[in-house]
Design goal:
The chain is of the alpha/beta class. The protein is built from eleven helices and eight strands.
Length: about 250
């Protein structure tokens, strides 16, 4: 079975649109967990467009209380500002179960590529080492490329998160989706051979997730926007159940 971690960024984004407390991030995250999700994912950004540092702290308490994992995504090189403590400081303060290091620029709309691990990455290596020392499992957001997977292992990551955007973008194209899917199968198999865990995420949904998980061995999928959007149609608990049935 593949674990489902639900990204609740869009819940916070909707709350922030009116600068109030509705929808209640903690209440809805609790409902997601009680519906069977194995974890909660958040991606706090320096511009605070959705998840805020205080949210991460509150979710850390919730996930501990309900015995599920908290996965905090972000660029470990994001520094401190007046309203943002810096990504690594946020990890030090909250000690999530997993951190997923993503190479996002500060004002980037969404994650759209993995790390280039073929260059010198001494700063990234320092962040990985610190997270490991803090007892936080480290996952690196990468493209399904063997050389990057090798580098992720060498840098000290325990897992990688395979960026599934290209698969999702080409899912309806029968001429190309098979070849693209094979690259993820090969990547996952190689990760297993070097004892590197495999997560996956980005633009996965109820339609394309089935084929992906039938084909690729994955420890965890992180799904946010599609799941929250589907919950407007099916309701939150039913939507989580639909995704869980695929993961099983």
């Amino acid at each position: 079975m593949t674990n489902l971690s639900v990204n609740v960024n869009k819940v916070a984004w909707l709350r922030n649109a009116r600068e109030g407390t509705t929808p209640d991030l903690i209440d809805l995250s609790s409902k997601i967990i009680l519906a069977g999700a194995a974890g909660i994912t958040v991606h706090p950004r320096p511009d605070l467009r959705h998840i805020r540092p205080a949210d991460v702290k509150d979710l850390r308490l919730l996930t501990k209380d309900l015995s599920v994992e908290l996965n905090v995504e972000g660029n470990p090189l994001s520094g401190k500002s007046d309203s943002y403590p810096g990504f690594m400081e946020l990890l030090r303060e909250t000690l999530p179960d997993q951190c997923t290091f993503v190479p996002d620029a500060e004002h980037q709309l969404t994650s759209d590529h993995g790390w280039n691990l073929l260059n010198k990455n001494s700063n990234l290596k320092e962040c990985i080492d610190e997270a490991n020392q803090l007892g936080i499992r480290v996952s690196l957001f990468v493209d399904p490329d063997k050389k990057h997977l090798e580098s992720a292992k060498e840098l000290g990551a325990s897992r990688v998160e395979l960026y599934t955007g290209p698969y999702a973008d080409n899912f309806s194209n029968k001429d190309s989706v098979g070849k693209i899917l094979n690259s993820y199968i090969t990547a996952s198999d190689y990760c297993r051979s070097i004892n590197l865990g495999v997560n996956a995420g980005h633009d996965l949904n109820l339609k394309n997730l089935i084929l992906f998980l039938q084909s690729v061995e994955v420890d965890e999928v992180s799904i946010g926007q599609a799941l929250i959007a589907d919950s407007l149609i099916y309701g939150l608990e039913d939507t989580v159940s639909r995704y869980l049935n695929i993961c099983k």
